[in-house]
Here is the input.
Amino acid sequence: MVDEPEACGLITLLSDFGFRDEYVACLKGVILSLNPRVRLVDLTHEVPPQDIQTGAFILAATAPYFPPGTIHLAVVDPGVGTSRRALAAACRGQFWVGPDNGLFHLIFTGQRDLEIVSLENPDYFLPQVSATFQGRDLFAPVAAQLSLGVPLALMGPAVRDPVRLRWPEPVVTENRLTGRIIQVDRFGNLVSNIAADLFKHWLKGRPFRLWIGPAVITRLCHTYGEAAPGEMLALVGSHGYLEIARAGASAAGRLMAGKGLPLEIRLSI
Here is the structure.
C-alpha cells in the first residue's frame, strides 16, 4: 500500500452535465451538506455528452495545476447503473473519484504510487442510490468523505485492473509521423495526439510538410500571431501537444472537421 495523500479540503468537478439542468447543483449540495467548509472548483461541465476521451483529456490537462491533496470528482458515465465499477483512487499526490470506464486512463497510466478501491461500502453513499444518477448519490458523498479524512481502504476492496481507454497513439517511422485530432477547443484549434517531445525528437529541426484535410503546413510557429490572418499554422500548444490552428479564426471551421481527423507529417527531402 502506498502512502495516501492528505486531503486539502478542495474538490474539483468535471462532468458532461451542462448547466441547464439540476445535476451540477445536486452534486454540490450533497458535498456541502457533508462538508460545508470544502472548496469547490468547476473544471468544466461542458464535456460533450458521454465523451469519455474528452473528459480524460481535460482532467489530465488541468489536474497538475491543483495543490496536493485535491480531490477530483469526474462524472462522464454512459454506463451508469450497469455492472461497471465505481472507483476512488490516490496517486500523483491527489485523489480521484468516478466511474471505472477509462475516464482516469491518462491519470493512472505509468503511476507507481497508485492505490485504487472499488466503492462498495454503502456507509459512505446516500441512503438511496439511484440507478441513473450515481454522481449525486455515490460519487459526491464519497468525495465529501475523502475531504473529511476518511481513508480509501474503508470504502471498498482494492482494484488492480482499472479500465483502460482506447487512446489513439501516433505512428512513427523514419520519414513519416501520423496522428489524429483528439481535442477541439472553443477557438477551433485542433489538438493532436502527437506530444511535443515526440515531434521535436523525430523532426530534429529538419524541414517538413504536414497534411491535414486539404491544408498543407510547412513550418512550426511559436505563437498564433506569427501567421498572417486566416493562415493555417502548426505549433506546440499549452497542452504540450502538436496543435493545428488558424490565425485569428477557426481551424475546425476551415477544415469542416474535428475529433478523429487524421494528420500526416513527412520530412521534406
In short: The longest strand covers residues 176-184. Residues 171-267 form a domain with the Elongation Factor Tu (Ef-tu); domain 3 fold (CATH 2.40.30.90). The two ends are 53 Å apart (CA to CA).
